[in-house]
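Ticket reopened. Same input as before:
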Amino acid sequence: MEKKNGNTSLITSNQLRWFYYLVPVAALIIPFVANEYLLWIVNAILVYTLVTVGFNIIIGNLGQLAFANTAFFGIGAYTSAILMVYGGVPYTLSILMSAIVGGLAGFLASVTALRGIRLYYLAIITLAFGELMRWVYLHGDDVTKGSDGLRIPDDIFFLGIPLDSEVPKFFVFLLLAVLLVKATSNLMRSRIGRAIVAIRENEATTASLGIHTARYIVLAFVWSGSVVGVAGAMFAVLTERVLPEAFGLTEVIIHFGMVLVGGTGSIVGSVIGAITLTTLPEYFRQFPGMDELFFGIIIVLVLLFLPKGIVSLLWRISPAFKERYYRD
Amino acid sequence: MEPLLKVQGLSVNFSGLKALSDVTFDSFAGEVRAVIGPNGAGKTTLFNAISGYVPSTAGQIFFKGEPLHGLAPHDISVKGVRRTFQTGGLFPEMSALENVLAGLHVQIESGFFGIVLGLAEAREAEREGILRAKRLLDLMDLGAAAEQPVKDLSGGQQRMVEIVRTLATEPPLLLLDEPVVGLSPPMRDRMMDIIRRLAGEEGIGIMLIEHVIDLVMSGSDTIVVLSSGELIAEGTPEEVRQNREVLEAYLGHA
Ligand SMILES: Nc1ncnc2c1ncn2[C@@H]1O[C@H](COP(=O)(O)OP(=O)(O)OP(=O)(O)O)[C@@H](O)[C@H]1O
Ligand SMILES: [Mg+2]
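Engineering reply: fixed in the latest deploy. New output:
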């Protein structure tokens, strides 16, 4: 290990790696100290962690203004719910299907970006795609049960474990979140992740390095769609009823807020964003009528004082917290 | 000697504007070939056409006997023709090391599943890439700047990083668009030195666009002169220096 270039920080990147591994291990005690309600919030955080990690790949790493991720989330939720309700498909398998269908939705969204539709055009098209999906849920009565939502069965199992309370859900969600966050982190710190960021930085010159830019734009969208699709499958089980309202424009703002408040292009930031914008609004619920106001205020304050997100506070503690696009 | 690059009757039009008309020349391995000409002469357009960034209107381009025209920029790069850009070629938020690693992309042989699952093979391929990138940066005295975002580096360091990034895969042909612009005179000499060494010792074919006539005269083997999109002269520095047409079209303005 070399420690040159005046990096006299308190924390080395090696120590930090162990810290990252310890976080999920330490989290294992949560079910033993938290009540059902708190545990429900923690489970929601795990779901939103994956939503934000997936969304951040598009916004932060690839740098595209595509807002289809909330739609991927809904597609993942409905895929699992429909398979379980009508097909009696085991939950484990429906999670996989949500990943695949979410990835397909990601592929579809990438086609718009590939065809040179960018910036506000990409933004509006992807937002419209989300609204279109919501219309499908609302009007697909026979299957989706419209605005009543689709109630998922009571007897859901994950590899034989009944998911009948928050505790078993917590362990399953933690496992899924850890696996997908780690896989995404591996991806972003490899030649693939570098190609994706290079496209954000300068798409034209990226090609001059022999990088097939279209391939990596598609890959970013498909991976993002799969991760968020799995989050959707978790969300279906968390809320026990899949409703069209859960995937509307307000949710797009919440998800986008999580990305920005945590920090764009940062996995640690994604986790922070998910925690912040899940817990604080939950806390503000005791002030009915004011909660949306508080939500807006948090986003404005963070972006005003920490334009790079809350994760930038960690960078002040140690530059080792800055994520790099390689692993040493 | 078999030419590395053959450009035959190359023309590029931009909605009526003839940026290049009927340009023909060969370029060889181990040769430093300068492309000179007044502003707007079509020098960058020539590089853009060779590297696939603008479509040609007429003519053909062959690299090692294989046609390049019609190929996408990334395919041409993979074939071994790599270039730098007149401005803004780097990835500003990425560190010098990450920029060079991106340059090594096609040589780091780690597959999708190996990367996602963190398999040993993939990690080994990445590690080799990192070692190579660090070695290259050290070689150019950029080791200390490796971890910094390139936007925080000096203009000279940035130029160097872009050249290292482009060179990383040891391409047989290198197109450098004004590589010494904005460098201090000592840095400039150093860069020209490196360019001469790459051609002389590594046998790389180098084409470079340059405005400073002294550097061109002392640093290149062959000079191609463009004026209003036409190739008006080609030859050794002495030959070009004595060419009347060149004196009128270009040196007179300098
Ligand atoms: N993509 C393009 N679309 C339209 N016109 C272009 C394009 N690229 C270049 N041109 C025009 O073609 C001509 C040649 O430009 P080019 O950039 O090749 O000149 P140059 O010799 O590199 O000049 P300089 O020394 O200023 O870099 C100019 O008139 C320029 O405006
Ligand atoms: Mg130019």
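The CA atoms of residues 104 and 222 of chain A lie 7 Å apart. The two ends of chain A are 9 Å apart (CA to CA). Please confirm and we'll close it.
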